[in-house]
């Protein structure tokens, strides 16, 4: 699905179809890129899919706070894209870190963290009072930081832990300093 074709019924299937990552996921496993061309392909798909998610959230989001959150996530994705995808050094650094992320223990833990993050964001968008949303979004991001880093720290070299921490800090910075990470 492209940005121009977000369906009118705003279904979860519409949202899921924003990302065309069938080569990235197979048989419940993540097929991490193994060369520069594969990283560039994944980066392009992530950026296009992020634009689709942003358009979906503008059209289908239930709250202004939820729509703003997705716009902030897109800003963070663009920052990540620039730091990792746009330079040969960024892509080679990503390939180096991926060796650890493909460890089944890390991959499984990160899937669980992501699943819980999505559930938290769905609850926030489903109707938390406006005054509670920013703090709830911060809480969900801090959960990702703490639990994601925990798994990486237990299974990877320190430079990979530091890389993940800097990535998460960049994502959180898109919230305009509203969270301390």
What's the layout of helices and strands?
Layout: H1 12-16, E1 25-26, E2 29-30, H2 36-60, H3 64-85, H4 88-101, H5 104-125, H6 130-155, H7 158-173
Helix pairs in contact: 2-3, 3-7, 5-6, 6-7
Could you explain how this protein is built, in words?
This protein is an all-alpha fold. It has a two-stranded antiparallel ribbon. Residues 1-7 have low confidence and may be disordered. Strand 1 and strand 2 form a beta hairpin. The relative contact order is 0.12. It has one domain. It has seven helices and two strands, in the order αββαααααα. It has helices at 12-16, 36-60, 64-85, 88-101, 104-125, 130-155, 158-173; strands at residues 25-26, 29-30. Helix content is 72%, strand content 2%.
Arithmetic mean of pLDDT? 75
Total separate domains: 1
* Biggest sheet descriptor: 2 strands, antiparallel
> What pattern of helices and strands is seen along the backbone?
HEEHHHHHH
Rg calculated over all Cα atoms: 16 Å
Strand order of the largest sheet: 1-2
Number of helices: 7
Please state the structural category: mainly alpha
Shape: globular
Multimerization state:
single chain
Distance between the termini: 34 Å
The helical percent reads over 70%
Strand content: under 5%
Annotation, overall tally of beta strands: 2
- Report the uncertain regions: 1-7
What's the gist of this structure?
The protein has helices at residues 12-16, 36-60, 64-85, 88-101, 104-125, 130-155, 158-173; strands at residues 25-26, 29-30. It has 181 residues and is mainly alpha-helical.
